[in-house]
Amino acid sequence: MKNRTLPQININRLEQMLSDFAQIGKTDKGGVTRLTLTKVDQQARDLLISISKTAGFKIRIDNFGNIFIRRNGLEDLPVVMTGSHGDSQPRGGRYDGIYGVLAGLEVLLTLNDFNIQTRHPIELVMWTNEEGSRFAPAMMGSAIFTEQLEIETAYKIKDKDGISVKEALEKIGYIGTDKVIGQPIKAVIEAHIEQGPILELNNQTIGIVTGAFGQRWFEVKLTGLAMHAGTTPVNMRQDAILGMAHCIVALNRLALKPSSNDVRLTVGMITASPNSRNVVADEAFFTIDMRHYDADLLADLEIQLRSELTSIADQLNLNINIQRVLSMPAIHFDEQCIDAVRKAVTKNHYASREMISGAGHDACHLSTIAPTSMIFIPCIKGLSHNESEAITTEWCQAGANVLLDTLLILAENGGD
Amino acid sequence: MKNRTLPQININRLEQMLSDFAQIGKTDKGGVTRLTLTKVDQQARDLLISISKTAGFKIRIDNFGNIFIRRNGLEDLPVVMTGSHGDSQPRGGRYDGIYGVLAGLEVLLTLNDFNIQTRHPIELVMWTNEEGSRFAPAMMGSAIFTEQLEIETAYKIKDKDGISVKEALEKIGYIGTDKVIGQPIKAVIEAHIEQGPILELNNQTIGIVTGAFGQRWFEVKLTGLAMHAGTTPVNMRQDAILGMAHCIVALNRLALKPSSNDVRLTVGMITASPNSRNVVADEAFFTIDMRHYDADLLADLEIQLRSELTSIADQLNLNINIQRVLSMPAIHFDEQCIDAVRKAVTKNHYASREMISGAGHDACHLSTIAPTSMIFIPCIKGLSHNESEAITTEWCQAGANVLLDTLLILAENGGD
Lengths: 416, 416
Fold this sequence. Notes:
GO molecular function (chains A, B): hydrolase activity, acting on carbon-nitrogen (but not peptide) bonds, in linear amidines; metal ion binding; N-carbamoyl-L-amino-acid hydrolase activity
Helix content of chain A: 25-40%
Structural class of chain A: alpha+beta
EC number (chains A, B): 3.5.1.87
Cofactor (chains A, B): Zn(2+)
Protein name (chains A, B): Amidase, hydantoinase/carbamoylase family
Oligomer: homodimer
Keywords (chains A, B): Hydrolase, Metal-binding, Zinc
Order of helices and strands of chain A: HHEEEHEEHHHEHEEEHEEEEHEEHEHEHE
Largest interface: A-B, 64 and 64 residues
């Protein structure tokens, strides 16, 4: 923090809260296992509510367990929302999600400390089941709040033990009766760890998030001929594994082309048949996860990808089948919200970059019903969904201060 | 067959015998499942013995179920052996192994037909468990006969149902008492289908087999870092699957270099971890099966292979571990035996090539105790270990005629 003028968040209190929540579901390697709607999720919810009650905030819980903690404004104007999720991956990190919740809570407490009034109310939300690890799909609470998923459908979704979302909500006592859907929202700002390596590698403390990548997922199957590894000369084969290797190298080359503009392209899953040491493979299967902000580029890359892979298959005398199995459009966050983040960063003199989220977040759903943006802070080595997930005190403080100033801009500081 | 002078084998009888044996363990797609020491293997043994008895040959069975069918020579000289195996892969082909047995039997019957006497006795052998599908390792009967495997060790080997080799031998009644090991052997000639595509693609009918490839097998493990597919730019990854793809492409390029002299190099087995669509893989594993006749080249290729793969891993910031898990020297067959095959081919005017076996055969073991060579005939599209395995009448006849003339050279035609 350089040349900061008051108010500023209380980093000691924020770090203490992060440490207290990290005890709830703590793993032996310093991460957390806090799957949604479990006993430990309930404990995290209880602690959040306890702190918020003490501070005098108004607490509402909707019928999907989303928790809304409101600090009133001077006027009855549309609310400025912030927050994130409290659940984690199995053996996940202690910052993913909960950082955004507690940075928001710290902002509300700081406003109390400094007796700052805002024109608009500010509402902190802890969304139910962002991770989707126990109940798929992910980002469920925000999907229901933004009416992209029917609550009756979601209630019936079961975990691997056959327990439904509704049963789990009832068991931890978090099916609320407050109707929050439909309230006027002025803006939404979610703070989150980056979950990638870009900020740290560029020595930047804040990511001003301008949107989220569109995604196209593919499944590719190559078919050749199973032959004896000893008796078949290498130039007489129809080797499906070799074809797959050429495809993966070509896809990487495509992704690294300057014209591909930092597309995220991943082959993460591979299988082969018969998958035997001394048999030339007759079948190879792999997946492609391709993400970019630019819809036109994504469409163009799909054309290039299909053309390149088909040409490789032809050259190696293989059959190829390319199926697109998922297509999600890119999300463009709201220019005024982004600008509020920019101003908050400038005020605080933090090194920053504008960036696009490669991962999905609750803010992506919220952007469909309200002006939205996000604030990223770095995480060490970009590690996330990992017990080793870590942040520095400096990043922790910077993210919460930027959130504070952004919310003050959007909720309009009415004076102290 | 062009300009052939008598004697020649009876192609109708040979094809009839091949057809009769193909009924034993026949599969619905025209192949056979005749695993070693099963009821159907017993039936094939019984039929072989029945035909041989009728023809007046002397039958011996050793304590591993290897069957020796002897046609006496004019003198008590070292024996000239031929034959192959009667067992098959599960859902295997109707020619793999049994062709060499029945071509040998047809030669003995032809010698009877033409009243030809040889100076040396000729002995047809059907070796037990060449495939190794039911009881590993493969080529077991010839390994025991050549004293490369202890019989007491082999007896104890069990199939997946817990039945031992000894129990299986007893059950089908083929533990013999004849001691054949140690008898003087002048030469061994095994006829076999090529199990590869080279002869057919070159319009050649006979392969004069000069040896068998040496083999080196490797296991390679690449280790990177698991990262989020959406948040990690492609140029900031340590992607183990990408590393594997580059390795497989480089290995193929190495195999196709003219200086690599038609090395057989196969990546047949691949796995990755976590093998998830939207996670950059932190681990990839693959196998390499590398075969060549030239021991120096094989050693040199191992050096090149290690250097190339290590360099790829370094460039992509991955750890690499390369383990050699198998090393078998090449086998050089006996020049006089090879020359006998050459002369027989020349006499018959068949299109031929000298070639090295990429697969292991009983003849490989026998070559360690006696002068040995092999005769290959083509199989359609090189398919083998496959129910579609097929040969033409022309090839079938050619192989048996070459075997006849080779055995006549080696056993020394004493006149008719």
